[in-house]
């Protein structure tokens, strides 16, 4: 297991690499070029500069999260081949710089949805939260709420220029149901897989977050059945998954340890997001500390499933709280994620020694 830490870059992340380096067990940084427009080719020189910066701090950068997919590909518009060609060139450029895994998603319009960026918990910490009743208005209402709570912080997947005319974007998706979105996903996967194999870069699609339809938009990466369908698009180690325990666990019907055993056991999960969440009512949850006792997921069973399935890929803690007076990027402060890493690596060591 290679422990990593998501970082947004020196220009946009208040956490310096030197502080990340001091977290015991962290050997990798998970990064991206967040300022490039969706669909544009990532230049080799920009990728190399980021890799060099991380390596100069004593860590490695081998996982990119995310190379977002242009809406024309998801919708299946005639111009999608141009954007797929750009994506393929980006894959090649990333491989040139030593990248091994690309985490991405295939969610229409919204990459992820929360209704509260700073929900106060009983202990005085603050966490991301979701309430289904607050997404029953219009998407424009949600967009305004999220952007107002985020302030000047750039939220990945919520690019202002892409969402500027949200009504037109929804109109473009009007005829995209689950079957069509899945077909467009299959088209994309089949187009990129030969290059992924050639340059040895594994694709790892992230589950939908939350794993159910939002504003009538289809979701196709929700559960084990969906993952099996995607796997069948092109059965290869290069067509894999980011198993996000929180996103999958937001639906109580998902047996997260069983999903881990199935897909890690088949070598289809090179990347894991390990986090806990607390269900508070149907369709309502908030992020929590990583400990099993703090949320609704059994993190011991999750880590045991990874260990017993022979997981040797990349993992990072996800969506920490703001604690000890920190006012970090929503979900991505330093202190709680550092505590999460200590807990997860402690579980991993104990499971390994007891077995």
From TrEMBL:
It comes from the Bacteria. It catalyses: D-mannonate = 2-dehydro-3-deoxy-D-gluconate + H2O. Its EC number is 4.2.1.8. It holds the Pfam family UxuA. Its cofactor is Fe(2+); Mn(2+). GO terms for molecular function: ferrous iron binding; manganese ion binding; mannonate dehydratase activity. Belongs to the mannonate dehydratase family. Catalyzes the dehydration of D-mannonate. This is Mannonate dehydratase. It comes from Tessaracoccus defluvii.
């Amino acid at each position: 297991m290679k422990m990593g830490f998501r970082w947004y870059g020196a220009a946009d992340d208040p956490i310096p690499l030197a502080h990340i380096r001091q977290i015991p067990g962290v050997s990798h940084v998970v990064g991206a070029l967040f300022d490039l427009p969706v669909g544009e080719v990532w230049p080799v020189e920009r990728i190399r500069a980021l890799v060099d910066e991380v390596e100069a701090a004593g860590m490695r950068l081998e996982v990119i999260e995310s190379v977002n997919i242009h809406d024309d590909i998801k919708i299946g518009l005639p111009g999608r081949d141009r954007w797929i060609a750009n994506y393929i060139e980006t894959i090649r450029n990333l491989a040139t710089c030593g990248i091994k895994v690309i985490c991405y998603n295939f969610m229409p319009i919204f990459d992820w949805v929360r209704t509260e960026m700073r929900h106060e918990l009983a202990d005085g910490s603050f966490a991301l939260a979701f309430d289904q009743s607050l997404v029953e208005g219009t998407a424009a209402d949600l967009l305004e709420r999220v952007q107002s709570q985020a302030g000047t912080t750039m939220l990945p997947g919520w690019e202002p220029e892409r969402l500027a005319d949200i009504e037109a974007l929804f109109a473009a998706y009007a005829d995209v149901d689950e079957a069509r979105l899945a077909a467009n996903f299959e088209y994309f996967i089949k187009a990129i897989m030969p290059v992924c194999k050639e340059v040895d870069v594994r694709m790892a699609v992230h589950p939908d977050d939350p794993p159910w339809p939002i504003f009538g938009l289809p979701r196709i990466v929700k559960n084990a059945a969906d993952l099996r369908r995607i796997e069948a698009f092109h059965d290869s180690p290069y067509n894999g998954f980011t198993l996000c325990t929180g996103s999958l666990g937001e639906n109580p019907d998902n047996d997260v340890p069983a999903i881990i055993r199935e897909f890690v056991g088949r070598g289809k999960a090179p990347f894991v997001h390990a986090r806990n969440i607390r269900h508070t009512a149907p369709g309502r949850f908030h992020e929590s500390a990583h400990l099993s006792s703090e949320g609704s997921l059994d993190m011991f069973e999750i880590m045991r499933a990874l260990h017993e399935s022979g997981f040797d890929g990349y993992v990072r803690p996800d969506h920490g709280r703001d604690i000890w007076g920190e006012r970090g990027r929503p979900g991505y402060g330093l202190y709680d994620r550092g505590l999460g890493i200590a807990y997860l690596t402690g579980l991993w060591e104990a499971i390994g020694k007891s077995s």
